[in-house]
Amino acid sequence: MSLQDIEIKSEYRSLLDNVAKDFYIPLLQQAVSYKRAVGFFSSSALVEISKGISALVKNGGKILLVASPYLSAEDVEAIRKGYELRDNIIKKALVRELKEAKDVYEKDRLNLLANLISDGILDIKIAFIEDENKMGMYHEKMGIISDDFGNKVAFSGSMNESVEAMTLNYETIDVFCSWKGEQDRVAAKENAFASIWNDCEPSIRIIDFPNLKQEIIDRYKKATPNYDIDKHEFGERIYVLDEATKYRLGPDIPRNVQLHDYQIKAIDEWEKRDYRGIFDMATGTGKTFTGLGAIARLSERVSDKLAVIIVCTYQHLVEQWVEDIVKFNMNPIIGYSSSSQKDWKRRLEDAIRDQKLKVRNKEFFCFICTNATFSSDFVQTQINKIRGNALLVVDEAHNFGAEYLSKLLSEKFTYRLALSATLERHNDEEGTAKLFSYFGEKCIEYSLDRAIEEKKLTRYKYYPIIVTLNDDELRRYSELTYEIGKCLIKGKNGKVKLSEKGKILALARARLVAGAEDKITKLEEYIRPYLYDRHILVYCGATKLLRENQDFTTVDDEDLRQIDVVTDLLGNKLNMKVSQFTSKEDVEEREILKREFADGDTLQALIAIKCLDEGVNIPKIKVAFILASTTNPKEYIQRRGRVLRLAEGKEYAEIYDFIALPRPLDDVPSLTVEQMKKELSLVKNELCRAKEFARIAMNMVEAESVLDEIKEAYSINDNLITFEEDFDYGQ
């Protein structure tokens, strides 16, 4: 193998290509020499430089690095005042840029480089511009990679060796190969580097700082170097060559990820069922990693000749998946309305074409999108063009039982995988049957009970808090119930359902119950013991539903009314450090809020709408006040699971669940039979949820004593606590 055997593009753009995985690592695997001139010197630049050099070192190679100090205006002025101070000032500027490692990967990479400096494999020189006693910074970015056969690749451009340049900024490098008739361009770069390195370039001065190299060794050399760091961080198969000397571009389980036995068994079952099936796993039990492990298993079986389509409900869920997808050695195409990959449509078209034409090393691709994007005409047209092996992976798969999505479950996908914590659709047997018919049987059922027992989720205490409608709210509730009763119609299957007018009225009634005034009064009472605590969630819910063409939820004035009242109560009256967490905040703002919430110093409580339904990961939640709940088991089971995610220092969680009743329990005995009948469906549905929550709570006896009071007042026994159709289209 030589550099000539690697597919090399003439240009790489940081937001279109994974430069480390697509360029540096494959080339350096075959190299014996790496000469690099970068912009500013920093520990971040060292970390990025380290990617791929392990293979070069194993080849007996050498690395030469030229960098420029980052000088402040004060540094430059000090140098002007006294030339003899120059070296000291430059040294201080360089040392200032040596930061502590942010994670275990950076720690290993800096340790590797420190060892290479100590062993004389990596040499560093510092360059700056000096002309007539004026000083500036050397900014040229270029590099030359050479193999043992005399092949050379030269590159230059705007790419800095930093995390920001690699991932955030839109920067490019131009590439020239000595065997492609570009010898002159390559030779010019190599001569320029040699001139700079040997301090022969006019106006450019070079300092060989032995003190700087020793500083790096002293700071970062902690252990024997980990030459497998690239494999551990990125996964192995992108670099490892098979017997036919082709790159394995398919997914693989990272070395630092150890799947649990139940995850492996689920994948085994899926394989036995011809790679079709359902992973029914409680929130927080590793559904995503199990799904990615399954993708890796199938891809290996079909020699990485596979189109993988992953579909999620919301935009931020796509991004959460992407974080894990890249760990499994995949470079996904990310498709949704505001994707950072502005050219995702072109990428998808190219990937499908390359697979169809069996282009070398391009028969595997992964496309991830939202439900809304998946259902678009463009994506459906592209899917119909797929000719090779295709796998459909659907997260929160219960949504695909809906008519508009179920009709898109194409036979084009030979391989199928559904992921869901609650696959059975609420009050929709037909939709549930479609899911089982298309995806197959369950390969695993991992319940929330089991997850708690096996310590995959935390234990919890459950406190049902009774709230009641006031006189005006009860009057309005009765009026709406009466009007809803006049809107019942028979569907095609003979089943009673609501007319469109009835749905609007049911939504209005759900809003009424969700925003009951007594909830604010009770919240103030029960949150007071936590005034100085952290990691609190106040969940207000929302009554607005996700429309077919949406991939993020919106809120309106009705939804914001309660959240604004809660914000005023906690933030102004009780002087707590709070922030709202709704769709008004964009992805970046949400990430900042999640970090501040986890830290807890500047933010005690999040006041949220929909986040527990949307799959937002906020593991640090320790106390949750759920003001507005739902009669849909899928939703309230998922909400509970997300509160129970494991987190450091979280021994158990506490859930305060506001149980909405039409009237105080003392007033129930005076009700007529007709009045009782109108209220029973709401009461039973609230009890149905509360009974499930109390069942496995640490304080089960205490919680059930509250529920017993409700059952006694309404003369309900346990056998009657089942969901009743209340035409609840909200909460």
From TrEMBL:
Pfam families: Helicase_C, ResIII. It comes from the Bacteria. Residues 515-684 form the Helicase C-terminal domain. The keyword Transferase does not apply. Residues 268-441 form the Helicase ATP-binding domain. Gene3D superfamilies: Endonuclease Chain A, P-loop containing nucleotide triphosphate hydrolases. One of its GO terms (molecular function) is hydrolase activity. The keyword Protein biosynthesis does not apply. Keywords: ATP-binding, Helicase, Hydrolase, Nucleotide-binding. This is DEAD/DEAH box helicase family protein. It comes from Aceticella autotrophica.
